[in-house]
């Protein structure tokens, strides 16, 4: 398609050979009114450059050779014609004409093949929705919901209150691995039982859990802190409460003095008098008031066990480790101690985890969760 430009306002163009109104000759065809070169825009030497002027738009028409093409609106005085394409326009003689908007050779059969959009309000043209994409969307939504639940579970998962992280401990004489890459996690609010049938392994586990011995490799974690970075007084003073089978209390002191002695050794500041706190602790563990003032060596086995547990929680320990809590106790005494440990573990006012190292069947049955080495 070729385009031809027709000048519609030649009489408005200045004559290059004609003189100006003031009698001066016209500018050279390569120099504008400011004396700057038209090609480069540079001012003549010795003269400061002046802003470039924008020439007035020259109106013109575009004529197409193709008669079937839609002719765009002509530009007049730098402004496009507002007459829309395909709407009515005027011929040179002033009569209105309508531009063609479709091929004149199209027949009714051709136009009938053009799809007509369905009216959603017309029951004759409305179609039933496709149920397949909805089913696919439902399956996709279910998959996304499951993915979100897994992500939330991973996000909300907390550190264990107390844990063995790949702990390994060897016997110093034989070199035997008493604990071999042990991983255990304990959470507050639960009573745990860890069982082992090896006496050496049992002692090694109690030593590592109680902070008495560090593992050769691995870590013992109290929440996000490594016990290896803590001083001994901080570990056993108010971090971990240990209830061993022997030497759990001082035999020469009575129950109240035993607890005061424990508080003083913890190197902590208490808001209430220590003896008042000791009496509250004895009441918590069910210690008989009639036994107050009696040396610990003269107490029966059940009260000695209660006193040992009271000493373990005297400084609000986060983890309480108990070695075979029901050994040497009758059925009634065993039930009383297991009930006490369960109550302490489930106490919501003072979050703690209670860990029993035992192979007694009744202890295992009372635990919320058990581990076997």
Give an overview of the whole structure:
The chain is an alpha/beta fold. It has nine helices and 15 strands. It has helices at 108-112, 131-156, 199-209, 232-238, 255-265, 274-284, 301-313, 331-346, 361-366; strands spanning 3-7, 60-64, 75-76, 79-80, 88-90, 96-98, 162-170, 177-186, 191-195, 217-222, 225-226, 240-243, 319-323, 353-357, 369-372. The strands form five sheets. Strands 12-13-14-9-15 form a five-stranded parallel sheet. A four-stranded antiparallel sheet has the order 8-7-10-11, covered by helices on one side. It has a two-stranded antiparallel ribbon with strand order 1-2. The protein is globular. Mean pLDDT is 74; it is low at 1-48, 71-76, 83-90 and 97-113.
Strand content: 15-25%
CA-to-CA gap between the ends? 91 Å
The geometry reads as: globular
Number of helices: 9
Order of helices and strands: EEEEEEHHEEEHEEHEHHHEHEHE
The level of helicity is 25-40%
Mean pLDDT: 74
Q: Show unreliable segments.
A: 1-48, 71-76, 83-90, 97-113
Total strands: the figure is: 15
Instruction: Report on the biggest sheet.
Output: 5 strands, parallel
Q: Strand pairing plus helix content: what structural class?
A: alpha/beta
**Nearest-angstrom radius of gyration?**
49 Å
Quaternary status: single chain
Strand line-up of the largest beta sheet:
12-13-14-9-15
């Amino acid at each position: 398609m070729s385009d031809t430009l027709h000048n519609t306002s030649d009489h408005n163009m200045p004559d290059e050979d004609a003189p100006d109104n003031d009698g001066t000759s016209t500018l050279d065809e390569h120099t504008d009114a400011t004396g700057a070169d038209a090609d480069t825009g540079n001012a003549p030497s010795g003269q400061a450059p002046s802003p470039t002027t924008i020439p007035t738009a020259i109106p013109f028409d575009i004529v197409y050779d193709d008669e079937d093409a839609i002719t765009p609106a002509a530009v007049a005085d730098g402004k496009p014609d507002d007459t829309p394409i395909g709407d009515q326009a005027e011929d040179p003689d002033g009569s209105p004409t309508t531009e063609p908007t479709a091929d004149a050779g199209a027949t009714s059969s051709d136009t009938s093949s053009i799809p007509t959009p369905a009216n959603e309000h017309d029951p004759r043209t409305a179609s039933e929705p496709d149920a397949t994409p909805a089913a696919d969307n439902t399956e996709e939504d279910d998959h996304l919901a499951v993915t979100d639940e897994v992500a939330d579970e991973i996000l909300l998962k907390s550190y264990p209150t107390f844990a063995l992280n790949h702990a390994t401990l060897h016997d110093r004489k034989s070199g035997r691995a008493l604990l071999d890459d042990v991983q255990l996690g304990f959470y507050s609010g639960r009573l745990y039982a860890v069982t082992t049938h090896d006496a050496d392994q049992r002692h090694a586990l109690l030593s590592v859990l109680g902070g008495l011995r560090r593992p050769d490799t691995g870590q013992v974690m109290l929440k996000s802190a490594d016990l290896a970075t803590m001083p001994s007084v901080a570990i056993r003073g108010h971090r971990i409460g240990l209830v061993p089978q022997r030497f759990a209390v001082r035999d020469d002191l009575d129950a109240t003095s035993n607890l005061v002695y424990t508080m003083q050794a913890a190197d902590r500041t208490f808001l209430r008098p220590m003896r008042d706190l000791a009496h509250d602790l004895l009441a918590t563990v069910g210690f008989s008031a009639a036994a107050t003032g009696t040396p610990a060596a003269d107490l029966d086995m059940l009260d000695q066990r209660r006193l040992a547990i009271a000493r373990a929680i005297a400084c609000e320990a986060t983890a309480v480790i108990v070695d075979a809590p029901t050994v040497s106790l009758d059925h009634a005494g065993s039930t009383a101690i297991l009930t006490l440990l369960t109550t302490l573990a489930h106490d919501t006012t003072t979050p703690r985890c209670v860990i029993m190292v035992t192979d007694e069947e009744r202890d295992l049955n009372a635990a919320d969760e058990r581990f076997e080495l």
